[in-house]
Amino acid sequence: xxxxxxxxxxxxxxxxxxxxxxxxxxxxEALTLGWGGVTLVSQATGMSRATITKGIKxxxxxxxxxxERIRRQGGGRKKNxxxxxxxx
Length: 88
Fold this sequence. Notes:
This protein has a domain at 2-60. By secondary structure, it is an all-alpha fold. The protein is globular. The protein has helices spanning 2-14, 19-33, 37-45, 49-60, 80-83.
């Protein structure tokens, strides 16, 4: 029963959350469930266990929660200008 409830809750809210918020929401749910919570939340939401574990560490203060950036600096695609400078 918990699996379906988690899945429904996540589907309802997921479109309003960014990556960090999803990670923290899943971590909070896993903490609430206790033993086996990480696995259950992972299966219900499709989020990796490592990501949920990272969120738990952020919520419990073992890791700092990034304030401004969602991804690490330098991540993502590079601008077209920087990839093709030699061709201009």
